[in-house]
Amino acid sequence: MFDIMGMMGKVKEAQAKIKEAQGRLVHLSAEGEAGAGLVRVFVNGERKVLKIEMDESLLTPNDREMLSDLIVAATNKAMEAIEIKIKTEMKSATEGMLPNIPGMDLGSMFG
């Protein structure tokens, strides 16, 4: 027979672990680079840009458009990298909490 009370307890436990994991996301960080390292962007697990570093050789009026493109590319790479870390963190927080239901990935639901 289905144990609804046991399941509800597991759900509450999973919610607490998810909330705890979400609190740790600010401590995650990732970096993206473009132009062979001429531009580097750092982001955290809250998907916020923390810092942008760029080579001084790009700081000329002639390189303005290229600099913009490199910042966008590096930011996108950093965001892709942090998404992987977020999913891993959230998945580990919920692993084994609820029964394995095909197609239901709690880690990605809350990341």
From TrEMBL:
Keywords: Coiled coil, Cytoplasm, DNA-binding. Pfam families: YbaB_DNA_bd. It is found in: Cytoplasm, Nucleoid. InterPro entries: YbaB-like_sf (IPR036894), YbaB/EbfC (IPR004401). Residues 4-31 form a coiled coil. Gene3D superfamilies: Nucleoid-associated protein YbaB-like domain (3.30.1310.10). It comes from the Bacteria. Binds to DNA and alters its conformation. May be involved in regulation of gene expression, nucleoid organization and DNA protection. Belongs to the YbaB/EbfC family. PANTHER family: NUCLEOID-ASSOCIATED PROTEIN YBAB. Homodimer. This is Nucleoid-associated protein GCM10009119_39700. It comes from Algoriphagus jejuensis.
